[in-house]
Predict the 3D structure of the following.
Amino acid sequence: VHPNVSQGCQGGCATCSDYNGCLSCKPRLFFVLERIGMKQIGVCLSSCPSGYYGTRYPDINKCAKCKADCDTCFTRNFCTKCKSGFYLYSGKCLEKCPDGLEANNHTMECTSIVHCEASEWSPWSPCTKKGKTCGFKRGNEVRVREIVQHPSARGNPCPATSESRKCIVQRKRCQKEGKGKKNREEKRKKSNKDESKETRQESKGRAARRQNQEQRENNNKTQPKKRKAPNKEQNLAPIDSAH
């Protein structure tokens, strides 16, 4: 230790020197040596930097270096992340994965090989030919299935997801599209015509009822009122008493 030891240190140091930096750290901090050129300087950190792992002792907490192939580690013999070109497996960094495993270049780990899995086949479709279900005797029917698990790089590839086979059906005539369309158009016109006829009849009935009502009202207005019959006694001539 350099003789110039100071107790009033900065940066989490408990003791330090001008030449060596930190010599000891405050509680719960980790002591680590950082290389600056040909010189090593002691520093105190709250957590160990990349490439180091922390160990706690009663008198001091230290950061120790991981293995050369480890980027980060939990202990010296247990890596948590490997450097470029190595694959992590059970805390170790390997250049090649063991048998039964494959290298995952995304996570840089050795993982299990995953094979493709497909669902059960669907029922066979109706027999068709050129998209139609009539007008033929021999056609084709198909069935399909879905991929439920895609394979990894070294896994077994996926099988076909559709199958087709020939089929025979009883021939039936197809309804002509033009004729069918014409029939539908005629039915529509007939329906509209019937509706129009009913509407006209209802309108005529309402008009006739309204005309009759108006006629009755006009008759009541133009008919002369009956005059009251004169009193017979008033119309009698006076009898001459002389005669």
Q: What stands out?
A: The two ends are 185 Å apart (CA to CA). Confidence is low (pLDDT under 50) at residues 232-243.
